[in-house]
From TrEMBL:
<keyword id="KW-0677">Repeat</keyword>
<protein>
    <submittedName>
        <fullName>Uncharacterized protein</fullName>
    </submittedName>
</protein>
<dbReference type="InterPro" id="IPR056884">
    <property type="entry name" value="NPHP3-like_N"/>
</dbReference>
<feature type="domain" description="Nephrocystin 3-like N-terminal">
    <location>
        <begin position="371"/>
        <end position="523"/>
    </location>
</feature>
<dbReference type="Pfam" id="PF00023">
    <property type="entry name" value="Ank"/>
</dbReference>
<dbReference type="InterPro" id="IPR002110">
    <property type="entry name" value="Ankyrin_rpt"/>
</dbReference>
<dbReference type="Pfam" id="PF12796">
    <property type="entry name" value="Ank_2"/>
</dbReference>
<dbReference type="Pfam" id="PF24883">
    <property type="entry name" value="NPHP3_N"/>
</dbReference>
<dbReference type="InterPro" id="IPR036770">
    <property type="entry name" value="Ankyrin_rpt-contain_sf"/>
</dbReference>
<dbReference type="InterPro" id="IPR054471">
    <property type="entry name" value="GPIID_WHD"/>
</dbReference>
<feature type="repeat" description="ANK">
    <location>
        <begin position="879"/>
        <end position="911"/>
    </location>
</feature>
<feature type="repeat" description="ANK">
    <location>
        <begin position="945"/>
        <end position="977"/>
    </location>
</feature>
<feature type="domain" description="GPI inositol-deacylase winged helix">
    <location>
        <begin position="636"/>
        <end position="717"/>
    </location>
</feature>
<keyword id="KW-0040">ANK repeat</keyword>
<feature type="repeat" description="ANK">
    <location>
        <begin position="846"/>
        <end position="878"/>
    </location>
</feature>
<feature type="repeat" description="ANK">
    <location>
        <begin position="978"/>
        <end position="1010"/>
    </location>
</feature>
<dbReference type="Pfam" id="PF13637">
    <property type="entry name" value="Ank_4"/>
</dbReference>
Length: 1051
């Protein structure tokens, strides 16, 4: 029977206690367990001897834990009732006639709810928890305790009676406002848990514990004056969370992921425990805990955050399930498996190298003024787009975090950024990579299809854009609604690819897209407008709409920055800026910055009188204000910011001034020129730049456009000249390490620009122009032993070692200067090194020699130079087997032709793809495949990852290549180990057109072999419905023909 206290409704059975480790004690010592509940003795076990395996106490189902009097020292056969926030303490005591009750190890106070929630995972709800023990003084001891604790559920009658009581009580509570918000929410939560228990009694048994805990909380809340808002909110969160779970009793679990329903049931224990702890306090203690210390309130808020996260997670799983049902194939739901191997997932994340534009998103959010853009977010067009899949194009700049509005939306963002030369935020491919990572996060993990792609490409090779887009499409297909936000599309340097991709998403086989919502912001460039005009879309031109927002922002800014000015001056500033801005936020923001610099109200009035027209006028004014002594430094800063390969840190950019171009023997590094405070460069560049978390950028894309077009000779920049200047500064910066024999990581911390310089000087040199002074600097880097060695140690640019840093690297273990000159395409440097009689055929990993490195990178001039000087055209290498195969894989047509004409063996075997033809077929290079076939490539040569060229092309789905190979005599039924044959390889990926082509060329649909046994089994395992139907139709035709033959023969 339950005690009088209505809170003590959580009963539990102690199954066993085990102790592992070294127990030292006197001979004939015995040991016993004492369990305390809320500092009261509850259980004292029998005294037993220590065995070889340790100590173990077991209790039968009848020996349940009971609260006992302090004087009792025996185990009684009754049930013990715990409060939801009760704390258990267990100690192991040694007993000997000479030593009475010595504590040898203990487990400190642990909340019962935590123990159940963290350990109850199987159908019997037993907690098998393991804990390290300490001494009474808190020091670690070499003992470990395993505890099996089982909460005993309430009977069905108890539950039904309590539910009736809940129903009656909730109606009475309506007249008691202070209790209504919490007690009624808990009551509804109890009803919801009962609904879930009816459907999940075996699958999610932890809900039994949730039930008894929350029911106890409900009883005390009926008589408690609960006034704190956080408690009422927590109760409402519990009700909503369990209500959503109750609404989806048959929600299937995504393979290899945690059960959301079970997570919610565990969290309900935590919620109830916190509410109980609060409600059981006196008014004074409650005030002290909540209002003064804030400890309990902080824990409640953390609990709310977890609940909100679970609500979002459950909503997304429901969304995924609903969409999977809509696309159901037969009786199997097509739900992606996710990668559960954390190590593998980390490797794939690194391999994918997805660009992170969250800084741009945060930057945009920080600039956003509360109360602005309401016309947009409350407008019919935006609200309609949120509900209906399709494309919304905003002509202008307007991004605000949608998840702030609706936390459960599945949203992914990408911000293109053209303020510098960083390809990371300017390429379509990087948009796709980023979306894959973001939507995978929403789904619960990386899909296994990405693992397959990773394994097929290999860690050191990247997938094609088409392959990545297919993976992304697979992920998007799992959601009922997925939202893609693309900002500044016009700043994408290959936005034609993005336009095509968007077009295909929106127009899918002439049917309107059913689940994708795309929002794009961009300036109305001609090609963008032309492409979008072909679609059914919603267009918003924000030029006029932003005028009211400008007025709203100016009101706020007057109060923040100009409150000391007279009302007349404030009104004048607002009027002038609003009228002159002509809808341009950027112009208004810059003028506010300049006005804020004025030292007096009079100076601000004079500044207003000479407001420039347009952005270019403002930029002219800013540059004119820069001290002439710093023009050269400022120009260099602006060149770096406009054309750097990635965003620059302030400490990196500031160190560019250490390169002195006034040296007698050319530019040298002069550390004495370093700024005492790197942030002083912000004073030089004024409002043209912005800084966030130590990273500096041009403040707007229009700044770069202005610098490229300005007539101001002191600050006009040119793309090629800027890249050359950046390359020269980088090289000279690296040359200072020629005087350092043993460079260490600690030493490098004093040279912040070294990492960028080592990684990107070649990139800048390729985009710039080589002059005599720059050539001498480059030659010095390759010929000065210590400078060259330290450059490679700082950042190795070798293909398979790219971007690695190793200060312990032995000089004898990395490639020669001639190799790196060939790899980086340095023609003049290579000629110099060849003249110095350097060995061009020296073999070292990963690409073994200079010719193979040059071929891999596609440097035709370098390849010719090396071949003319005797490079071995058929030298073997580890990854691709030979030069020709490596070149075919990379798709360098001119080089393939050159190598074939110079005697490369077209059928040389070895490497990842077996031969050159298979490598070209796998990559889908039609022209190269034709070249190889014309030069005698064996179309049926075996070997490599895919067995033969035909299977490689079939796996990838290149219909044109497949047809070409078949026309040249490829064996359509050739066997190999992994996929069995070409038909099975095509079925694996679901390439319907290729399958039809193979069947036309008499592919054997009954052929056995490979991983799945047959083509039909492969298609079934991969869930390709249309392929299954196609194969079944072919099998039916085959069967009919056999029957016909049998009938004709009279058998």
């Amino acid at each position: 029977m339950s005690p009088d206290n209505p809170l003590n409704l959580l009963c539990a059975t102690l199954a066993n206690v085990e102790v592992e480790g070294t127990l030292k004690g006197r001979e004939r010592s015995r040991f016993y367990v004492q369990l305390d509940i809320d500092d009261r003795k509850a259980v004292i076990s029998a005294k037993i001897k220590c065995s070889v395996s340790g100590l173990r106490w077991e209790w039968t189902s009848g020996n349940e834990i009971m609260n006992i009097d302090l004087d009792q020292c025996l185990l009684l056969d009754s049930i013990s009732w715990f409060a939801p926030s009760s704390k258990i303490k267990i100690a192991i005591y040694q007993y000997h006639m000479l030593i009475c009750n010595k504590c040898v190890g203990r487990l400190g106070r642990t909340q019962v709810v935590d123990m159940i929630a963290n350990g109850a995972s199987n159908i019997h709800l037993f907690l098998h928890a393991s804990f390290d023990l300490t001494s009474e003084s808190g020091l670690a001891v070499p003992l470990r305790m395993k505890i099996a604790l089982c909460p005993a559920p309430k009977s069905d009658d108890d539950i039904e009676n309590l539910l009736q009581e809940v129903d009656n009580s909730i109606s009475k509570l309506k007249n008691r406002e202070s209790v209504l918000g919490t007690a009624s929410s808990i009551g509804q939560a109890l009803q919801l848990i009962k609904a879930i228990m009816n459907n999940f009694s075996q699958i999610h048994p932890v809900l039994n514990a949730s039930w008894v805990v929350i029911s106890g909380v409900y009883k005390i809340l009926q008589d408690t004056d609960v006034q704190d808002e956080v408690i009422r909110e927590l109760a409402n969160t519990l009700r909503e969370m369990l209500g959503t779970a109750a609404a989806v009793p048959d929600l299937p679990q995504i393979p290899n992921t945690d059960s959301v329903i079970e997570e919610i049931s565990r969290q309900s224990l935590q919620v109830a425990s916190l509410i109980h702890e609060y409600a059981n306090l006196s008014f004074l203690k409650r005030t002290a805990k909540i209002q003064l210390s804030g400890d309990l309130k902080s824990r409640i808020l953390q609990c709310q955050t977890k609940c909100t996260s679970l609500q979002m997670k459950l909503a997304i799983r429901i969304d995924i399930n609903a969409h999977a049902r809509a696309t159901q194939i037969g009786m199997v739901l097509l739900m992606l498996h996710v990668i559960k191997d954390d190590v593998l997932a980390t490797k794939i994340h690194k391999w994918l190298s997805a660009s992170d534009s969250s800084k741009n998103l945060n930057e945009a959010d920080e600039k956003h003024q509360d109360g602005t853009c309401l016309w947009f977010f409350k407008g019919k067009q935006f609200l309609g787009w949120q509900e209906t899949p399709g494309l919304l194009w905003i002509k202008g700049k307007l991004i605000k975090t949608l998840s702030d509005k609706k936390p459960c939306l599945v949203v992914a963002y990408f911000f293109f950024d053209g303020r510098d030369s960083q390809s990371a935020l300017q390429l379509h491919e990087n948009l796709i990579r980023s979306l894959i990572i973001q939507f995978s996060h929403h789904y619960g993990g990386l899909p296994e299809s990405l693992e397959s792609l990773y394994k097929h490409c290999g860690e050191h090779h990247q997938p094609s854009v088409n392959q990545l887009q297919k993976v992304l499409q697979d992920i998007l297909n799992q959601f009922c609604h997925a939202y893609i936000i693309i900002d500044a599309l016009d700043e994408c340097i290959d936005h034609a690819k993005t336009l095509d991709w968007i077009f295909k998403l929106i127009v899918n086989f002439n049917q309107l897209v059913t689940n994708i919502h795309i929002l794009v912001t961009s300036r109305p460039e001609q090609d963008i407008e032309k492409k979008f005009n072909q679609l059914s879309l919603t267009v918003i031109d924000i030029a006029e709409a932003t005028r009211q927002d400008i007025i709203d922002v100016l009101k706020v800014e007057m109060n923040l920055k100009f409150r000391e000015y007279s009302q007349k001056t404030q009104d004048e500033i607002k009027t002038q800026l609003n009228e002159r801005a002509d809808g341009s936020f950027r112009w208004m923001a810059l003028q506010l910055q300049e006005l804020a610099k004025c030292y007096s109200e009079d100076a601000a009035i004079k500044q207003l009188a000479r407001l420039p027209d347009g952005l270019n006028g403002i930029y002219d004014q800013i540059l004119e204000a820069i001290d002439k002594r710093y023009h050269d430094e400022t120009l260099i800063f602006l060149q770096w910011l406009a054309f750097s390969m990635r965003p620059m840190k302030i400490v990196e950019l500031a160190d560019t001034v250490t390169v002195d171009f006034d040296g007698q023997n050319g530019p040298v590094c002069n550390i004495k020129k370093r700024y005492n405070n790197p942030y002083d460069l912000l004073k030089r560049c004024s409002s043209l730049v912005i800084e966030s978390n130590g990273v500096i950028k041009l403040s707007h894309f229009s700044v770069k456009e202005y610098l490229l077009s300005t007539v101001n000779k002191d600050f006009k920049i040119n793309k090629e000249i800027s890249h050359s200047k950046i390359a020269e500064i980088s090289i000279v910066y690296l040359l200072q390490f020629n005087s350092v024999e043993f460079l260490t990581e600690n030493m490098l911390e004093s040279f912040p620009l070294a990492g960028y310089a080592a990684q990107h000087w070649i990139d800048h040199l390729r985009l710039g122009t080589m002059n005599s002074m720059l050539y001498q600097s480059v030659l010095s880097l390759f010929t000065l032993e210590s400078a060259f060695t330290n450059w490679i140690k700082i950042l190795n640019i070798d293909v398979l070692q790219k971007n690695t840093q190793d200060f312990a690297l032995d000089r004898e273990k990395f490639q020669s200067p001639l190799y790196y000159a060939s790899l980086s395409g340095m023609e003049q440097v290579l000629k110099h090194l060849i003249e110095q009689k350097k060995d061009i055929n020296i073999q070292r990993e990963p690409y073994d020699n200079a010719l193979q490195a040059a071929c891999h990178e596609g440097h035709e001039v370098i390849v010719k130079l090396l071949l003319e000087d005797g490079a071995d055209i058929n030298a073997q290498e580890r990854q691709y087997g030979n030069v020709l195969q490596a070149t075919c894989y990379q798709g360098h047509e001119a080089l393939v032709k050159l190598l074939l004409e110079d005697g490369a063996d077209v059928n040389a075997q070895g490497g990842e793809y077996g031969n050159a033809l298979q490598a070209a077929s796998y990559q889908g290079y039609e022209v190269i495949v034709k070249l190889l076939l014309e030069h005698g490539a064996d179309v049926n040569a075996q070997g490599g990852q895919y067995g033969n060229a035909l299977q490689a092309a079939c796996y990838q789905g290149y219909e044109v290549i497949v047809k070409l190979l078949l026309e040249h005599g490829a064996d359509v039924n050739a066997q190999e180990e992994q996929y069995g044959n070409a038909l099975q390889a095509a079925c694996y990926q679901g390439h319907k057109a290729v399958i039809k082509l193979l069947l036309k060329y008499r592919a054997d649909v009954n052929a056995v072999g490979g991983e799945y046994g047959s083509a039909l089994h492969t298609a079934s395992a991969r869930g390709h419905k249309e392929v299954i139907m196609l194969l079944q139709e072919k099998l039916a035709q085959y069967t009919s023909s056999i029957i016909g033959v049998v009938s004709d023969s009279g058998i």
